[in-house]
Each structure stands twice: as C-alpha cells, then as structure tokens.
Amino acid sequence: MAKRDYYEVLGVERNASVPDIKKAYRRLAMKYHPDRNPDDADSDDKFKEASEAAEVLTDSEKRSAYDQFGHAAVDGSGAGGFSGSGSFSSIFEDVFGDIFSGGRGGQNQVHRGSDLKYVLNLDLEQAVRGTNPKINIPTLVQCGECVGSGAKKGTSPIDCVQCGGMGQVTARQGFFSIQQTCPRCRGRGKVISDPCNKCHGQGRVEEQKTLSVKVPPGVDTGDRIRLTGQGEAGANGGPAGDLYVQISVRDHKIFTRDGEDLYCEVPISFVDAALGGELEVPTLEGRVSLKIPAETQTGKLFRLRGKGVNVTQVRGGGVGDLYCRIAVETPVNLSKKQKELLREFAGEYSAKQSPRQTGWLDGVKNFIDSLTD
C-alpha cells in the first residue's frame, strides 16, 4: 500500500514552518496515541504514520531530500539514502518534552524566601500622626556558620549521585519521557554528607529580628507597609522574601473614622438644644468651642473643617473634617419641683412646636386610614 504524502498526513502546507508542523503533530499524537486508544489498530497505525511524517519534516536535511525525491529519499531505497526507521520516541519527546519533562533541573537551585506578614496594632492617634515602632519578627535567616550552604564549615555539598547534579531524574513509559524531582536530593542537585552543626544542613536558622517600622501619618486599617528583603532567607543563597506590615487601628472611645473624616457624638441637654448655647468639643489637636443654635435637633451634624485626618502622605489627598453629631439627652432623676415645672410647661406646649412629631402622627393616621378603605 502506497504511503500517503507526509504533508497530507499532518494536514499542513508544504511551506509550513517547523513550529506549525510540531503543532499539527501534537494534535494528532494526542488524538491517536495508543494509551488513549487501547486495542485500536487503526489509531496505532495513524499514530505511527504521523510520528514518521513529523520525524522527517522537522529535520531540515531529511525534509529537503523528501521534498526533492519523495518517500524514496527516506525509506532507504532511493537516491537520498536516508533511513526513515528512526525512533518514533525521539520526535515525540522533542515535541512533547515541554509538557511532560517539567523543565530542566539545575545544580544548586536557588529559591526566593517566603514573604512574611505582621499585623501592627495602633491607636487612632498613632495612625493619624505617624509613629516609628520597633517590632520583633520570628523568621528564617541565612546560617552564619555555613553561610547558607548547609555543609559543615570546611566542607561543601557534593553532586547527587542519583541525578548527577541535575536535580531531576527521567522516567520512561513507552513513548513518554517524564522528568521528576530527584527523590534523593529533592531537586537541589546537591547532597550534604557532613551537615552544619548549627542549621543541621538546612542553610537557614530561626531567629528573632527586631525591626524599626516607619509608619507615615494618615494610615488606616488594611494599609500595608512593605519592608523589602526582611522576609525569610532564600534557600541555597536565594534572595530573601519581603515583610508586609499590615495596619490595624484600634477602636477609639470618642472618635470613629471614615477615610479622612472623623465623627464623634456630642450629648447635650434638652435645655441647650431648645435655647442654644456654646460648649467645648474634643479634637485630636485639643478642645475647640462649638456654638449650638437654638432648636437644635438630635442627629444634627456640625462640621469642623480641617479637624480630621491628614492623608497627604499615604493617599495624596488633603485633610479631612470632624463631624459632631448632636444627641439630645432626656434628663433623669428629676426632682419634684422639676417635674412640676415640666408639667406646667407641657400645659402651655403646642403641637406646632413639635413639627416632626406632628408630621409623623399625620403620616401614621393616613397609613391606618388607607388600610381601612
């Protein structure tokens, strides 16, 4: 039976590039591989046919001869004299090596150290004004005894005899060639016959580090400060990771914060609310005077400009404001005389003097009436 044209087998044009040929072969090989089609002779034949075509067309010398003389140039019977009997596994490994090999191992593979996270709790005043606290971090640092090699002083790690220093070993299963991490050296490519007494061959030791953290004014809960290179030391001399200091601001007894603005509740007597007055309110910079106009209601907000948080350094904004929310307080522990005065006041009290209450009662009446209609 005459062989099909190799270009036709792979479904590519005669001027197809090698990457396009490999891509076409990859698709066919995955489709017709014997492992995916057990006991299917037709798929086995198609797999071999595609492998043979790819072997020739990805080799520039064989392809040139094939383009000139056809199959005769590569089956050992014609002018080219090339043999088409090469191993199918070679082309399969070449095309699929990037998938199944897992990459090449390397001697003394270095690894970047892990990043660390530290939660820094601050008072609101510290967060607003900035601070420079010292923190203690348990971390892994390079062993000073062996300078990170893991080997006893005066000795050095040696190449792993199982992988030859590559860090990976090759396992073959039929046409597949799979590279795996060497179980003896665990991918490092080196083994330590005489471990360091201090780090026991790890190259790193645990240590408590004391660091100074510069916290800029205006930080808030959730903000992070990155300290480059202050994380765990890398393996085999790799670079250290980073330390991320995450800010957490404690609740304040007086103020609550919303971005660059501050809020506080100011309780006043119903006399001051009705007649008006003046009182002192706190800010982060000290006390200021707040004028309360007559007939002030609960929930009224008074804005003190520029008395909030300066976030210029952390967010590029400006200075926020302080909002004082009024809470009219009902008096307790009234004396007999005070009660009599209030009853006298109530006798002269008009519903027009409680517009919100009157409006609410009217709304309730209308709602009830709508239910009975």
Entry summary:
This protein is α+β, with helices and mostly antiparallel strands. Helices cover 28% and strands 24% of the residues.
The CATH architecture of the largest domain is: Ribbon
Mean pLDDT: 82
Instruction: Tell me the helix content.
Output: 25-40%
Cα-to-Cα separation, first versus last residue: 96 Å
Our Rg estimate from Cα atoms comes to 41 Å
* Beta-strand share of residues: 15-25%
Q: Which CATH first-tier class of the largest domain would you pick? A: Mainly Beta
The named CATH superfamily of the largest domain: Heat shock protein DnaJ, cysteine-rich domain
Return the structural class: alpha+beta
Low-confidence stretches: 77-87, 98-107
Structure annotation, total helices:
10
Biggest sheet overview: 4 strands, mixed
CATH level 3 topology of the largest domain? Chaperone, DNAj Protein, Chain A
- How many distinct domains? 3
Would you count the extended β strands for me? Answer: 15
- Neighbour order of strands in the largest sheet: 10-11-15-14
Categorize the overall geometry.
Answer: elongated
Overview of this protein structure:
- A hairpin with a 2-residue loop joins strand 4 and strand 5 (176-181).
- With 373 residues, the chain is α+β, with helices and mostly antiparallel strands.
- It has three domains: 6-100, Helix Hairpins, CATH 1.10.287.110; 116-249, Chaperone, DNAj Protein, Chain A (Ribbon), CATH 2.10.230; 255-366, Urease metallochaperone UreE, N-terminal domain (HSP40/DNAj peptide-binding domain, Sandwich), CATH 2.60.260.
- 28% of the residues lie in helices and 24% in strands.
- The chain is built from ten helices and 15 strands.
